[in-house]
TrEMBL record:
It is found in: Cell membrane; Membrane. The chain crosses the membrane at residues 7-35, 47-69, 81-100, 106-125, 137-157, 177-199, 211-233, 245-262. This is Probable membrane transporter protein. GO terms for cellular component: plasma membrane. Pfam families: TauE (PF01925). Keywords: Cell membrane, Membrane, Transmembrane, Transmembrane helix. InterPro entries: TM_pro_TauE-like. Belongs to the 4-toluene sulfonate uptake permease (TSUP) (TC 2.A.102) family. It comes from Desulfobotulus alkaliphilus. The keyword Cell inner membrane does not apply. It is a multi-pass membrane protein. The keyword Cell membrane applies.
Length: 265
């Protein structure tokens, strides 16, 4: 049990750094690692992906909070963007999580694997949308929030892989984009956690110490380390060559996605 808790802490430490460094919330690391680790705790395969996604969302509440504080202190959060996009984020994420709670875990794995390959390709090729316009109006921001939130709930992330391109496309400076993405991760995590908790209540296949599809021991270990390392990631984001780090991370995502893909057969 101690070894398992230490594993979750190590996972949380990595997730925290990535949350601050790349504005991705850490879910791209947390979800696949939970998929690999949870079966050792006797988690039923039928609910494996839902628990991984729900626990990842709950952990992002803490990593996003720690990361956004660090970015806010550096003046790198556009709070007007956060306020305008949050209503759509909350609606899209909550209902997306409710839908995902009722989907077969195999289907969710396929969705997540495809998403990993997509993100890896984007990071490795370093493709960025050309900043060609300003932020849309209220209806456009609500629609963008719903899209980012619903997709985030299906893959257990803080939305950075979607909100970063969106804000870059809207001509927001990149360092501000990262900080704002970290702030947007908080309403995504709150709404997504609520959706996975409600969606998992009464499920007979949940392991002990679970609240809906949120697994307590994993959450505790991940959060315990991630809140300490997220500020470090935010600091590194302003001093390291982020493009090179993205390419390295893309290779890691390709390895993880392939490992998960092979596990389907």
């Amino acid at each position: 049990m101690i070894e398992t808790f230490l594993l979750y802490m190590a996972l949380g430490a990595v997730a925290g750094v990535l949350a601050g460094l790349l504005g991705i919330g850490g879910g791209l690391v947390v979800v696949p690692m939970l998929v690999f680790a949870l079966p050792a705790q006797g988690v039923d395969a039928a609910v494996l992906m839902q628990i991984a996604l729900g626990t990842s969302m709950a952990a992002i509440i803490f990593t996003a909070t720690s990361s956004l504080k660090a970015h806010h202190q550096r003046g790198a959060v556009r709070w007007d963007v956060v306020i305008r996009i949050s209503p759509g984020i909350v609606v899209g994420t909550f209902f997306g999580a409710m839908v995902a709670s009722r989907m077969p875990t195999h289907t969710l794995k396929v969705i997540f694997i495809v998403f990993l390959y997509y993100v890896a390709a984007q990071m490795f090729l370093n493709k960025k949308p050309k900043p060609s316009r300003r932020l849309p109006g209220s209806a456009g921001m609500f629609g963008a929030g719903c899209t980012i939130g619903s997709m985030s709930s299906f893959v257990g992330i803080g939305g950075g892989t979607l909100s970063v391109p969106f804000m870059t496309w809207c001509n927001i400076p990149f360092h501000t984009v990262i900080g704002t993405s970290a702030a947007i991760g908080l309403p995504i995590a709150l709404a997504g956690t609520a959706g996975y908790v409600v969606g998992g209540l009464g499920n007979d296949m949940l392991p002990p110490l679970s609240l809906g599809f949120v697994y307590g021991p994993a959450l505790l270990g991940i959060v315990g380390a991630s809140v300490l390392t997220a500020p470090l990631g935010a600091k590194l984001a302003h001093s390291l060559p982020v493009d090179r780090l993205k390419r390295f991370f893309a290779i890691l995502l390709l390895v993880v996605a392939t490992r998960m893909l092979l596990g389907l057969f």
